Q: What sequence folds into this?
């Protein structure tokens, strides 16, 4: 079975990096209660709200993101039985390409270059897609697992996974049809 | 209709770049008759045969490749009626990522970041794939157009296009079924 896995907010945690960049530059309290349905930048004071876009374009931004808990072990486990691809919308940010490549080499060295896809629209063919953004599900034919992130908490239309333990349980329980 | 287009030896010409790098470093004549069925490195003297791998890994190698004749105009024309994606096996060479991104920005600025795919295996969903490597056709469901390059001249199993004019003619003549 071919399983495609998104990076940001699924394997890697950009939100805590945004918070640390804001803290580095501004002496303002950040309201990061992260209410359901809101993006992190909705919680940033208005006069510096646009800065997230500068941060995300910085060389190095994606290089040292923290791991989402349990992701390395779970992906390794999935790879024992399945054909695992990492599929990330990286082409939006030029400098993210090499950062994401190096980040994967560091944390997921068992993923071959053949199994990495850096793209814009996810025009991929796979049996399962694990992603936090429902826009990536629209044209996807396989099984969709919505990985929980504050911005998608109000979405009810998709099968949801709150963490990597749940991903493993769901994939072991209900294997999708082979391609 | 969604049309996926490979980069090397289809839009960009890495072979002439290899030749110029060899000429820069070695005072040897290069037999680049490019016989049908052979890769360019089969024509390099044996003691420096391995150098192509160093060259291709150099930062900047893919940044200034010459264009394949007619490619810009043809892709622009295809884009008027179709959903065009550039799909390149870029993840094999870390440094190629940003070089290919910048090369596309320079020569194909009308291609959105949403329509770029840098990958290893081409696990994409499209109606047409234009590529010079038949390995990329194996798992592809749509119409396959083999773009002529010396290494594939002995291949007879696929619909062949020798240049961009022929691509336009073939796509106008025989539109594939919509996805």
A:
């Amino acid at each position: 079975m071919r399983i495609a896995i998104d990076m940001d907010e699924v394997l890697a945690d950009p939100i805590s990096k945004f918070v640390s960049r804001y803290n580095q530059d501004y002496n303002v309290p950040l309201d990061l209660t992260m209410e359901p349905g809101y993006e992190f930048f909705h919680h940033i004071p208005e006069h510096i709200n646009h800065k997230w876009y500068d941060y995300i374009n910085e060389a190095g931004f994606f290089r040292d993101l923290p791991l989402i808990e349990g992701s390395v072990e779970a992906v390794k486990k999935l790879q024992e039985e399945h054909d695992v691809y990492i599929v990330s919308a990286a082409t939006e940010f030029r400098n993210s390409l090499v950062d994401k490549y190096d980040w994967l080499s560091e944390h997921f060295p068992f993923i071959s270059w053949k199994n990495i896809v850096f793209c814009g629209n996810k025009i991929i063919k796979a049996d399962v897609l694990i992603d936090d953004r429902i826009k990536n599900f629209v044209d996807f034919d396989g099984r969709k697992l919505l990985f929980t992130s504050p911005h998608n908490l109000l979405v009810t239309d998709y099968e949801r996974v709150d963490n990597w333990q749940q991903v493993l349980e769901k994939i072991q329980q209900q294997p999708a049809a082979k391609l």
Observations:
- Chain A touches chain B at residues 2, 4, 85, 90-92, 94-95, 97-98, 101-102, 112-121, 123-126, 139, 141 (CB under 8 Å).
